[in-house]
Structures are given as structure tokens and as C-alpha cells.
Design brief:
Structural class: alpha/beta
Strand content: 5-15%
Number of helices: 21
Low-confidence stretches: none
Shape: globular
Largest sheet: 8 strands, mixed
Length: about 575
């Protein structure tokens, strides 16, 4: 690589362990206190293992063991591993949403690395927001880092049917609400849908962000799609432990890898996968930490030129286990090689082009060929118009094509509580052609921009056999979700974005091919509504919620905190 290798005295941890003074005596003696000898750590890279294991995060149930396997690799390569627990963002339980706490984990990651004698770090994450949070913090700290994803869980099974996380839950919940599924069947599905540790096995946010991390160059090649229960997964964890030690000696850091070209690779891969809309928010935030250029318009341009190839739910038929055994991410990247910056550097010291050389697709039904793609363009479109001046997004590969161009009267819900109260009211003025609108669901309005964007359909519409409608909100939606859901409308309604002024009966026009989202209300009428609009109170008067409310940016800027963006250096702590 042409890099000059570090010497032991160049290590960051040398300031803690290598000097002959009183403070070093304390550091060394306390390390010996837990049973380590001087030979274990003298002159060796100290490798932090940031572990997001928690009993409240079932996706990460295997991380206790994976941390030990990473340690094994660190020891094998001559490093000194220190496992450090950090906040676990379990998507299932945390309320109001893990998105509200993504930046908290990012801050913790940055500061725990800065405050301790760390030369390099292995990041153990997987469940949706843990991926961007860990990578954002590690990028800001900018010590050598490698990411180990939790991996997807095994396929779900029910009465001979394969089940996918989230996607099939919503599918069959709609059938249950329509009266087509009984309680016994629903209970059987509950027992069969989540069969192992690991993240959602659909192309949800977890799988999308793991793939993005690999495409960025922050994971070992092929690592992102290994099923959590496959024996290749612990072998990969040990290999990551070995590699991080070499990365320290090579002084290979995240911002050496995270160029604008690397982010374009990640976006291109996410589009070819039909990946989660959440990737837009996270990748924009991550680019802001790396000093790379990435905005919504670049997302849309890359999506338009990228074929949709991954036949994985919710936009397709198969699951992540099928994707891995069909060749995995290396094979998909090989099929779009001409669309990638193949000279981009990765954590193994090789380029993207070198890492995907020789990769082959074994099942075209799962990873489509370029001459027979599932669709001519990527999975996410960016919309603009007077209803979303700063942009909105839609996962058009996971909606009914008949709604790609649609115009209909709005049925407005002021917040999620209003939605729950009135959705199934027989008097609700809704038809299959209506446009469901949810307000106060954005970064500040909810707060935390929850995954409410896949608004459930009213029972009176379900009874007609309808299973998709146009829905518009400033919320996000799960990457496992589907439907004609316009999301991330910016600016959000809570801060006075145009979404705040939509009223029942207003005609909303969606034009996905034209990338437009239009509220057909005259400008003078919108100005009148704006003049009488009054903002609501922020929900949190103190604590992290107050910090969040004061500093969070809008969706088009990645919802990072304004004071965390950029690459300005922070002084190393004094060793006193």
C-alpha cells in the first residue's frame, strides 16, 4: 500500500502504558489487576471491541460469543483486546424510536474511543440504527476501525410458507384485520417468524446498512450477508479481529476510506438491492462526518442509472439466506462493476475491484442479470414539489405500479394518536383513491421520526380488497415495509413545513416517474393557512430529549446533530 508502518512508540496507547511516570504505573498496575501480564499489552495495539449486546436486543443475542471470537483474532495477530459495552439500540422495544437515540450512540462511540487507550476498534452492530451510529462515531474519532455485522436471522416458516421479518407481519396483519386470518394462525406465525438470533432476514434497514458498510469499504469482503447462525459468521469475526491489528500498524483510518466515491458506491449498491429508505438518512449523516459530498439529488441520480437486481422481500420474493447462498453482496457488486468506483480502498487494504474479482452469481432468480433486471432503476426515488421543498422519498419497487402516478383527496391525521382513534371509524371520509396524510411524525414532531410511514389502511378499504394506497408523512418506515408510502417529507410539519397546512379534501398529486409531489392548493391559500398556524411545544423539557430537540437537523440533512457534523479535530486528552 506504500504506507509507512507504525512503531510501538507511535501507538496512541503508548501515552497510557509506555511512559515511565506515576500515571503509567497506575494504568499498568490496574491492567495487571484483572489478570493480564505486561507481555500481554506492552508495545501491542490496544483494540477496543464496542459491543452492542443487550438482553433487550434479541438481534444481538450472539454478540457475547462473537466478541470472544473477535478477541481470538486480536490475540492471534499480536494485539491486546478490550471489550467495551455501549448503548444497544434494539429496534423492537425502544420507544419512541431508536432513531431518536442514534446520535446518542454515535456520541458515546466517539467519546469512549477518545477517552480510553485505544489504537483501533472492532464495531459489533447490526440492528438498524446501531450500524450508522457506530460508524458515525468511529468516523469522527478516526482511529482504525472495522465493522462486524450481526448478520440476518434464519428464514421464518409457517404452514409451509417462508416468512420474512416485518414484511409478512404487515401482509398478514392486513389479512387478519380484513377477517381472513384467525387467531390460531396468527399465533402460529408468532412462533415461527423469528427462528434464530440475527437481524431481519428481509432487505430491511439492517441488511441494507450492513451492505452499505461493506460497499463503503468498512467490512471484510463478503461479510455483510453471512447469516448469523452460519459457521462462516464466527470465522469472519475472528478474521476481523486479526485484520484490525494490521490496520493499526498500517495506520489505515476510516476517513482514508470514506471518500465521496465510497459513498457513491454505497448508494449504488443500496439502490441495486432495493434497499431501505432509511439508508438515505443514515448515509447522508455518515457522509457529513467524513467530509464527503452526498445529498438527495445525488441519491436520485445514482438510483436512476442503477438497475434493480436483488429479488428480496419486501421488493421481491426471497430472503437474505437465499441471497447469501446465491453469491451474496460480492456477486451483486460484480454484476454492477461498471457502476462502481472500483479503485476505492477498503479495510483489507485492497480495492473494491480486487475484492469482487471472481465473484459469481449462482442463482439468477435471486440476483438478476443485467440483461433481465427486476427493474430498470434503483429501489428509491427522491421527490420534490411544493409539499416537499427539501425533498421526500419513496420506495417505488415495493408499491403497486398503478399508484406510480396518482391524484386524490387528502384524509389528514394530525398525529399518530389521531390516526389510531379515527382510522377504522365508519364515518371516515376515505375511498381507495384517497391519499392518507400523517402529520407530526418527523424528527421533532413525534419526536424521533418513528417508523410510522406505512400507515395501516382503514378497514372499510381493506374490506373492498384494496391492499395499497398512497400515504404521505414526515415519518420514516421500516425497511421491511412496503406500499406507496411517501416518507421523510422535509421540512417536517412540526417546524412549519407545507405538510402542516394540508387539510381534508386537498388534492395531492404523486408522480414518481416525474419525481414530483404536489399539493394542488393555491399559493395564497397556503400563505393564509401558514399565517394562522401555531407550532406545538417540544415534548422534552430536559435531558437528552432537550439536547436532541435543540440540535437535530431535518431528514434531508441526515438528522445528525448540527454540532457533530464535519471533521474538525478535537485535542487528545491529557494524561495526568
Amino acid at each position: 500500500m506504500g504506507r509507512q508502518r507504525l512503531q510501538p512508540t507511535d501507538l496512541r496507547s503508548h501515552r497510557w502504558f509506555g511512559r515511565a511516570d506515576l500515571r503509567t504505573f497506575a494504568h499498568r498496575s490496574r491492567t495487571k489487576q484483572i489478570g493480564f501480564a505486561a507481555d500481554d499489552f506492552d508495545g501491542k495495539p490496544v483494540i477496543a471491541i464496542l459491543n452492542t449486546w443487550s438482553d433487550a436486543n434479541s438481534c444481538h443475542a450472539h454478540f457475547r460469543l462473537r466478541a470472544e471470537e473477535v478477541k481470538r483474532g486480536v490475540w492471534q495477530a499480536g494485539g491486546f483486546p478490550l471489550e467495551m459495552p455501549v448503548l444497544s439500540l434494539g429496534e423492537t422495544y425502544m420507544k419512541p424510536t431508536t432513531m431518536m437515540y442514534r446520535n446518542l450512540l454515535a456520541m458515546e462511540t466517539e467519546e469512549i474511543l477518545r477517552a480510553n487507550p485505544v489504537d483501533g476498534v472492532v464495531l459489533l452492530g447490526g440492528c438498524d440504527k446501531t450500524v450508522p451510529a457506530l460508524l458515525m462515531g468511529a468516523t469522527s474519532m478516526n482511529v482504525p476501525a472495522i465493522f462486524v455485522s450481526a448478520g440476518p436471522m434464519l428464514r421464518g416458516n409457517w404452514r409451509g410458507q417462508l416468512l420474512g421479518s416485518g414484511t409478512d407481519v404487515w401482509k398478514y396483519w392486513a389479512e387478519k384485520r380484513a377477517g381472513n386470518l384467525d387467531d390460531c394462525a396468527w399465533s402460529e406465525m408468532e412462533d415461527g417468524i423469528a427462528r434464530s438470533f440475527g437481524t431481519c432476514m428481509t432487505m430491511g434497514t439492517a441488511s441494507t446498512m450492513a451492505a452499505a458498510a461493506e460497499a463503503l469499504g468498512l467490512m471484510l469482503p463478503g461479510a455483510s450477508s453471512i447469516p448469523a447462525a452460519d459457521s462462516s459468521h464466527p470465522r469472519m469475526a475472528t478474521a476481523a479481529g486479526r485484520r484490525i491489528v494490521e490496520m493499526v500498524w498500517e495506520d489505515l483510518r476510516p476517513r482514508d476510506i470514506l471518500t465521496t466515491e465510497a459513498f457513491e458506491n454505497a448508494v449504488t449498491v443500496a439502490m441495486a438491492l432495493g434497499g431501505s429508505t432509511n439508508a438515505i438518512v443514515h448515509l447522508v449523516a455518515m457522509a457529513g462526518r467524513a467530509g464527503a459530498r452526498l445529498d438527495l439529488d445525488r441519491f436520485d441520480a445514482l438510483s436512476r442509472r442503477t438497475p434493480f437486481l436483488a429479488n428480496i422481500r419486501p421488493s421481491g420474493q426471497f430472503l437474505m439466506e437465499d441471497f447469501y447462498y446465491a453469491g451474496g453482496l460480492r456477486a451483486l457488486m460484480a454484476r454492477i462493476r461498471d457502476l462502481l468506483h472500483t479503485g476505492a480502498l477498503t479495510v483489507n487494504g485492497r480495492t473494491v475491484g480486487e475484492n469482487i474479482e471472481g465473484a459469481a452469481v449462482w442463482t439468477d432468480a435471486v440476483i438478476a442479470s443485467r440483461d433481465k433486471p427486476l427493474g430498470p432503476e434503483g429501489g428509491v426515488a427522491v421527490l420534490r414539489g411544493n409539499l416537499a421543498p427539501s425533498g421526500a422519498v419513496i420506495k417505488h419497487t415495493a408499491m403497486e405500479p398503478r399508484l406510480l402516478r396518482h391524484s386524490g383527496p387528502a384524509v389528514v391525521f394530525r398525529d399518530y394518536n389521531d390516526l389510531e382513534r379515527r382510522l377504522d371509524d365508519p364515518a371516515l371520509p376515505v375511498t381507495p383513491g384517497s391519499v392518507l396524510v400523517l402529520q407530526s411524525a418527523g424528527p421533532l414532531g413525534a419526536p424521533g421520526m418513528p417508523e410510522w410511514g406505512m400507515l395501516p389502511l382503514p378497514k372499510k378499504v381493506l374490506a373492498l380488497g384494496v391492499r395499497d394506497m398512497v400515504r404521505v408523512s414526515d415519518a420514516r418506515m421500516s425497511g421491511t415495509a412496503y406500499g406507496a408510502c411517501v416518507l421523510h417529507v422535509a421540512p417536517e410539519s412540526f417546524v412549519g413545513g407545507p405538510l402542516a397546512f394540508v387539510q381534508d379534501g386537498d388534492v395531492i398529486e404523486l408522480d414518481v416517474p416525474g419525481r414530483r409531489l404536489t399539493l394542488n392548493v393555491p399559493d395564497d391559500e397556503l400563505a393564509r393557512r401558514r399565517a394562522v398556524w401555531r407550532p406545538r411545544e417540544v415534548a422534552y423539557p430536559r435531558g437528552f430529549g432537550a439536547l436532541y430537540a435543540k440540535h437535530v437537523l431535518q431528514a434531508d440533512q441526515g438528522c445528525d446533530f448540527d454540532f457533530l457534523r464535519g471533521t474538525e479535530p478535537i485535542a487528545e486528552p491529557e494524561i495526568h
